[in-house]
Amino acid sequence: MKETVTENNEKTFRFCTRLHLKVLTGLRASNIKELLRLIKKVPGSSIYYHTHRFLQQHQYLSPEPPNDFAHWIKSALNEEVLAEKIASIDTIQYGSIRSLRNEIARTIGDYIKENHRIKLRFAAGDKVFHFIKSASLIIPTPYLARDLRDFVEILKKITPNSIYFHMFEARLRLDSETNDFARWLETSLLEGGLAKKIKALDPYTYTMEDLKKKVIEIAEERLNNVNAQ
User: Which of 11, 101, 104, 155 is most buried when burial is the number of CB atoms within 10 A of its CB?
Assistant: First the structure.
């Protein structure tokens, strides 16, 4: 799923947005062991969906995304201890979906080992866990940044959907700790310091509108310093 935001081999940045679709995988779990087995094999876009669903649907509201796995473990299986362990996993600490998947799987696996003598609990038929994956239709916008000034001015015009795409979904597409903005600023404009500041932002503590304002603030500060030189 790796892709670049540069265009025609030039050092430009094409701002994009996306339409988000959810797709049933056909995979489902009725107990903890089945959940663990499928978490290890489902596409990364499914792990992404079940750990970021709230942000995708309510990006203007609370920045705290609930975890579908923890919710199901508690509500369908009544495994409250494990549910709390899964809910406490700090998503932002993991630089890629792969590492987040591994931590969720490790937590569930350890719990199974520690409680192997306890009778396996099954969800009722109408409460089985259905794995869903994210499917995004990427839509290029008319906005193309060629330098830092362009970047700042366009940031003021783009929608929260575009911020979400470049700040959140970049981690899934690039499978890295960075985001599209920081990557372009560092590699194309050689703005390593600015890129570092944007990369260091914890997007989970902001709404999309507030995150947009923060990126603009940081970029404008750098632009003003450049103009003053």
Answer: 104
